[in-house]
Amino acid sequence: MRQLYNKTIDEKIFLEELENGLKVYIMPKRGYTKQFAIFATHFGSNDSKFVVPGEKDVTEVPDGVAHFLEHKMFEEEEGSVFEQFSKLGASANAYTNFTTTAYLFASTENFYDNLKLLVKFVQNPYFTDENVEKEKGIIAQEIRMYQDDPNWRVYFNALEALYHVHPVRKDIAGTIESISKINKEILYKCYNTFYHPENMVLFAVGDIDVDKTIDVIKENVSQKKKLGEIKRIYPDEPLSVYKNQVVQDMQVSIPLFNLGFKDTDVGFGSKNLLKKSLETQICLEMVLGRSSDLYEKLYNEGLIDSTFSFDYGGEIDYGYSIVGGQSKDPYKVRDMILEAIKNPQFLIKEDFERIKKKYVGKFLRTFNSVDSIAYSFINLYMKEINLLDYIDVLYSLTFEDVVKRFEIHLQEQNSVLSVINPIKGQA
């Protein structure tokens, strides 16, 4: 067993790689009343085209399979896994995003029993023709719900405008048409490929015993042989944006907008990706944060309100910044932002130092919550980043790094505008 330690924050994580390839990370937090465990696979909505280790042919599956699998995993022949967690006093959940599917629970008692249940149910799929068909109706309802959600649509319309062919432009749940093509054979093939221990990670945190946690996992995990690397196939994405603008009418009272910036500096993970992500977040805060001159100007002119926000989503093979909210004139907001970013001289070193300290505090607060620790760990792990490296990379950032990143990323030619307008004539 290896021990990962960061002296700066005095935090440690234990790592053990099992013979089947599963990596187990355990973070003891003495005195915490809550425990949290998350069992995740590196399989998300982007992974619809791949080559199974040992095969030559390319497998292509319908959009939405990863999300469909997540739904089905909680159903067993004898009933719902949620009920079993509930009887043990735990709260269970799961999520699917572009790169990851994760299953988790939070508990204040019976941690090892809950951990055993987590490990066992994720390794025991139960798919039948009947329960797959039934699930299609449930997921179709979910898809319709999101299609009717203006905030969801303004976001995915922006992604569709940013990307020509990359699967990040597709809805995580797929479409009603794509899920209609899913059957139990497809689910089992994806499960056997991506839910292999070698493609998974288990993270546990709380006032827990490291050795006992490892023993419970070893006793209940499958003893599969290592599978080998899964070849994921993504189309070649051009550097340019697909279209500069997309507009849709929906039931809203005030227009919604997302101004997106496509990242053209991609293709790497680990500390370099972490550094770039932090540079971008700090850059956005300097340009558009509540203490910035631009934010004050937009707010005072009544162009933005409390819904205004921004974020950077950076993965190994793609990345984008999204700025958005409600506005009576999204086009004017866009024009003012694009005009402002033409001149990097408005970036001030004192602002950088202040915001950097803010991010240090924000990161340290992560360790007050086992939930936050676990979510952050998995999110970074899937990008080949160690959570304990975060603070040192953050401390290493310089003002010059952020200015350089600003000049590369926030470019008008990399931008798109997505707008949701009120339906004309609606009351």
UniProtKB/TrEMBL annotation:
Protein name per Swiss-Prot or TrEMBL: Peptidase M16 domain-containing protein
Organism lineage string: Bacteria, Bacillati, Bacillota, Clostridia, Thermoanaerobacterales
Gene3D superfamilies in UniProt: Metalloenzyme, LuxS/M16 peptidase-like (3.30.830.10)
GO molecular function: metal ion binding
Domain Peptidase M16 N-terminal positions: 63-175
Entries under SUPFAM superfamilies matching the protein: LuxS/MPP-like metallohydrolase
PANTHER family linked to this entry: METALLOPROTEASE, ZINC-DEPENDENT PROTEASE
Peptidase M16 C-terminal domain boundaries: 181-356
Coiled-coil regions listed: none
InterPro entries: Metalloenz_LuxS/M16, MPP/UQCRC_Complex, Pept_M16_N, Peptidase_M16_C
